């Protein structure tokens, strides 16, 4: 903003000097100054809008990055805590055989199972398969569906389990969207495991509060920011060249 103020003052000084040097009439000088002011105002408005939009994009990206980094840090911590996933699965299988099928599983054990499951699913990303559902998730964790429902009762409903899986897909898609070479939302949706774009949009909106195309636009603006600065600089150079020509003509 400081640079634009200096540029404005400089251009006004050049305009005033040019008018005095060429002994223009008051009407001619006023016309030139009005045109100059209009151009300056246009540049200032464009710059102000660019700064405002860039701040919005920056805050949105920072918020999403904090969410994703926090999730990754959490999974890294819980993934290495206590027993390994293989040890947990072995223990679960042994208890599955020895315990009565109707006996409820202890809460602590169920919580540990979910934490380990969440960490492993995010690491190996089986959800990128469009057919990955509740049964596939149970198979992935090498437990039968009945045991899975007891260990994770909140996802005993297949629809609820699918919502969880889609949230993981949305999280993965958000990371893919940070890559500026990925420009097709259909491609990103398919790569993340969604069967169609509509489900992708719904899951992404639910998880992050913005539509994927909106976030993609904001990411693209980050990479175009330098290009816009170059264009404004070029316009300024052209404008100064024109005034130099007027002064020397």
Automatic annotation (TrEMBL):
Residues 1-21 form the signal peptide. InterPro entries: Homeodomain-like_sf (IPR009057), HTH_AraC (IPR018060). The chain crosses the membrane at residues 31-51, 230-248. One of its GO terms (molecular function) is sequence-specific DNA binding. Keywords: DNA-binding, Membrane, Signal, Transcription, Transcription regulation, Transmembrane, Transmembrane helix. Residues 163-218 form the HTH araC/xylS-type domain. The keyword Protein biosynthesis does not apply. PROSITE patterns: HTH_ARAC_FAMILY_2, PROKAR_LIPOPROTEIN. PANTHER family: ARAC-FAMILY TRANSCRIPTIONAL REGULATOR (PTHR43280), HTH-TYPE TRANSCRIPTIONAL REGULATOR EXSA (PTHR43280:SF2). This is Helix-turn-helix domain-containing protein. It comes from Prevotella communis.
């Amino acid at each position: 903003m400081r640079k634009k103020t200096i540029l404005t003052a400089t251009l006004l000084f050049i305009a005033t000097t040019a008018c005095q040097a060429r002994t223009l009439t008051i009407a001619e000088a006023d016309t030139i100054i009005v045109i100059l002011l209009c151009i300056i105002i246009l540049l200032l408005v464009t710059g102000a809008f660019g700064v405002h939009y860039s701040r919005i994009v920056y805050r949105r990206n920072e918020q999403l990055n904090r969410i994703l980094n926090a999730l990754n840090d959490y999974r890294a911590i819980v993934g290495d805590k206590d027993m390994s996933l293989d040890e947990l699965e072995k223990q679960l299988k042994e208890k599955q055989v020895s315990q009565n099928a109707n006996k409820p599983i202890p809460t602590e054990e169920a919580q540990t199972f979910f934490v380990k499951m969440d960490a492993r699913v995010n690491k190996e990303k089986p959800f990128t398969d469009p057919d990955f559902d509740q049964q596939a998730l149970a198979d992935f964790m090498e437990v039968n569906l009945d045991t899975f429902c007891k260990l994770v009762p909140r996802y005993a409903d297949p629809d609820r389990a699918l919502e969880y899986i889609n949230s993981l897909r949305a999280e993965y898609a958000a990371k893919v969207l940070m890559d500026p070479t990925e420009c097709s939302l259909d491609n990103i949706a398919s790569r993340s495991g969604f069967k169609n774009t509509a489900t992708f949009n719904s899951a992404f909106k639910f998880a992050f509060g913005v539509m994927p195309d909106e976030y993609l636009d904001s990411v693209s603006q980050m990479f175009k920011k330098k290009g816009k600065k170059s264009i404004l600089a070029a316009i300024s150079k052209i404008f100064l060249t024109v005034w130099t020509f007027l002064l020397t003509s």
